[in-house]
Write the structure tokens for this entry.
Amino acid sequence: MEKAELYLRTLFCCMACDGEIAPVEIDAIKHIAMKSEAMKGLDIQVVLNDYVSDINKEGRLFLRKYLNELGEAGLSQEEEMNVVDLAIEIIESDQNIEYAEVKFFKKIRAKLSLSDDQILANHPDKEDFLLPDIHVSEDVEWGDIVFDEIKFVEFEKK
């Protein structure tokens, strides 16, 4: 998987891990993708529509596959920090941080080699995202979230 697609998939998985895709999150992805040099070559709309279809078919497996791919991506520390930055930005984009999103961030964090100090240097107010309150090596329990009901709202490219 290319880095650009890994970054977009990070955004999508963090957005969808709570079982909902809020319109403000779609706007945030559009804004992030438009300003990102790393995602310039992607047809964001097509890729996101594919992700919606895939998560509706695969459910939790889609999120597990992403985490496995992230762990095997061989990212530099700068690229890992990009993943962290993107994850935090999209989680906070709808002004409603769900525990499922923080828990998923902790799963992402477990796949990276960055230290807490490195993350806190960029995100000093995110200590709660790093607290070891769950066993990140265990499978995430998604509760009552049903992924085959996720709908994607189309957005226009500028």
About this structure: Helices lie at 3-16, 23-35, 44-58, 60-72, 77-92, 99-110, 116-122, 127-130.
